[in-house]
Every structure is written in structure tokens, then in C-alpha cells.
Amino acid sequence: MKAPELWILRHGETTWNVEERMQGHLDSPLTQTGVEQAEKQSEILRSISLPDMTRFIVSPSGRALATADVVAQDSSWNFETDKRLMEVCLGDYQGKTLSEIKQSEGLDLQSDRHLWKFSGPGCESLADMMARVQSFLDDLKGPSVIITHGITSRILRCLVLGIDVTKLASLPGGQGVVHHISRGRARVLRLDHT
Fold first, then answer.
1. Beta bridge partners of 58
2. How many Å apart are CA 15 and CA 22, to the nearest integer?
């Protein structure tokens, strides 16, 4: 799809990321590592000549807002929130660890790294998530910095790049990096010394 230039960031590491506990629409605070990752993202963005009319849009989840606060510190960047950037709702899996889910559901989480997150009890469907992310993309009119979540970032990038969303695990992830998309091409921006 035709899209404006995008810089997509995943929130920094959280306490639940460390515990391998599923957050979805729930939340946990950034760790010190997560704050440092957000500082790296800020440094990456500051090294770029962002266009004057760049919008800064963030998921309203606490971990994404905390990341945005670090990214924007000592700058004139003002973030607006958009609930369409929230992470996939994980229904009954929210608050449970990967090992608890694997044990209770008998899922093969290694061979199916992400798609299982759309099929559990109370989970948001892949079609519903695609529709809300597509709606967000349809409303973008110019270059944008987006702070969101791991699955949401992958769905965004699949839709913009024309990649089958069932292949979302094939896209690079990562915290402390910036995914840049321009003219249909994607690259991962990192600090030189990381």
C-alpha cells in the first residue's frame, strides 16, 4: 500500500517482558533496560532530519507512553495518542506467563511464534486487528513517528509492505531500534555502537 514515511518504535522492555508474562491490553512498568532502549531510540531519531510536519503518535498503553516520555525528553516533540495502536488483546492469556499458557493450552509456541495470540479464549482476532491497524494507516496523511507494541508493529509493517500478515514472525522485531519505512522499503535503524 502507498504510505507516508514511517518510523516505528516498540516500547522499551517491561517487567512483564522479563517474566515472559503476556501483557496485551494490561500493563507493567519499563525496566531500567527499557528506559535505556527508549534513550537509544531517542538518539536515533535525533540523528535524523525528520520532516517539519512529522506527526508523533503513540499507543495509550502505559508502557508506550512511558517510552514516548523518554524519547521526547528535552525536545519539542508532542505525541498524540491513538487507541488503534494498542497491542493485540490477549483475552484470557493476559497476565499469564508463556509457560503457564503452554502448559494449560498445549500450544507449540516455538513453531507458531505469534499467530496463537489471535486464537485463544477472548483474544482479538487477526482480522479484527488488521482492520483497526489498516484504519489507522488509512488516516495517516504525512510522515509519522509511531510508538506501539511488538505485534502491532509487525502488523503495521506487513500491511504497509504488502507482506502476508500470517508471515509476521518473519519480520525483525526488537526493542531499542527504529523501523524505518520509506518508498516501500524497510530497514532497521540502530545506534552504531550497539
1. 81, 147
2. 11
The pLDDT of residue 16 is: 98
C-alpha–C-alpha distance, residues 22 and 97, integer Å = 6
Task: Please name which of 142, 171, 138, 140 lies closest in space to residue 154, comparing C-alpha atoms.
Answer: 171
Distance CA 119, CA 101 (A): 12
- In degrees, rounded to 5, the angle at the alpha carbon of residue 175 between the alpha carbons of residues 40 and 193 is 40
The model's pTM is 0.94
Q: Burial, 191: exposed, middle or buried (Cβ in 10 Å; 0-12, 13-18, 19+)?
A: middle
Listed residue (132, 143, 152) closest to 181, CA to CA: 143
How much is the average pLDDT of 12-23? 97
